[in-house]
Amino acid sequence: MSQNVFDTYTRKWPQIGAVLAMALGGGSVLAASRKKPIDLRALAVMNSMTMAAHQVEEYVEPGYFPGQVNAGMFKSDQPLNYPFNAKSAALANMSFTALYAAPVILPKHKWLGLAASIFGLGQVFAHWVAMPIYLRTTYVPGAWSAIFLQAPIGTAYIRSAKAEGPIARDEWIKAAVVGGVFIVFGVAAPNILGADKNSPYPFTNKQMGPYRTDGG
Fold first, then answer.
1. Helix (H/G/I), strand (E/B), else coil: 9
2. How many CB atoms lie within 10 A of CB 87?
3. CA-based angle 100:93:141, to the nearest 5?
4. CA distances to 46, 61, 71, 117, 141 from 150, in Å
5. What secondary structure letter does DSSP report for 136?
6. What are phi and psi for residue 100, nearest 5 degrees?
7. Measuring CA to CA, which residue among 122, 135, 132 is closest to residue 187?
8. What's the pLDDT tens digit per position in 61-90?
9. Exposed (0-12), middle (13-18) or buried (19+): which is 54, by Cβ within 10 Å?
10. Which residues does 29 contact at the CB level (< 8 Å), separation at least 6?
11. Is the CB of residue 172 less than 8 Å from the CB of residue 113?
């Protein structure tokens, strides 16, 4: 192991360990679902945990997703609080809790779990394809949890749901409707309505990451 690699490891071992644990956990669930169906409520619980991990990666460690959105995507001249701010982020992420909790509470309604699973799979596209291409970057906070947790556990849910019995067309339609309503009212609306250049709810400098404008 070269000195530079070792130095990086000594500084980043918790993050490296977390990524490896996500890969091991997600891969194990996906492999297990190939052999036999996994209880849908258990998978829904796991799926809700993937979103919690995803939000930590976006907003806590490394946590600079807000900076990428405001400064990178919207070219804001005041990225700490416009157009995305801490209040609108908190309100939007409350709706994520509802989306992922619903199939835990009502596990017999497959369409609820399908909606959450499909949304999680969509996160892979957003964090690994759409945003990196637009921002010309190799990493977007939320990418590791998307590929190592949301993708395999969402896939395991769909696979296990099919194994329990054919998924009816109307269940796919309901899942699509739930996903659409969630994106419009749970994600877009809080951020559009909450956009305010005078918002008293700024993100932190850490959440700006490489997009900080204070020279820190």
1. helix
2. 16
3. 100
4. 9, 18, 26, 7, 14
5. T
6. -85, -20
7. 122
8. 999 999 999 999 999 999 999 999 999 999
9. buried
10. 38, 43, 46, 152, 153, 156
11. no
Backbone angles phi, psi at 194, to 5 degrees: -90, -5
CA trace torsion 113, 117, 120, 126 (10° rounding): -120
- Residue identified by tokens 């993937």 is 50
pLDDT tens-digit series, residues 156-203: 999 999 999 999 999 999 999 999 999 998 888 988 989 999 999 999
Structure tokens at 15: 């993050």
* C-alpha dist (Å) from residue 62 to 13, 26, 90, 91: 13, 21, 18, 21
pTM, to two decimals: 0.91
Residue whose entry in the numeric block shows the structure tokens 């909790």:
101
Name the residue among 48, 29, 39, 27 with its Cα closest to residue 163: 39
Nearest-angstrom CA–CA distance, 114 and 211: 36
Helix (H) or strand (E) holding 15: helix 3-35
Structure tokens at 159: 């696979």
- Three-state SS for 42-108 is HHHHHHHHHHHHHHHHHHCCCCCHHHHHHHHHCCCCCCCCCCCCHHHHHHHHHHHHHHHHHHHHCCC
135-140's contacts with Cβ under 8 Å and 24+ in sequence apart are 135/68, 135/72, 135/73, 137/68, 137/72, 140/65, 140/68
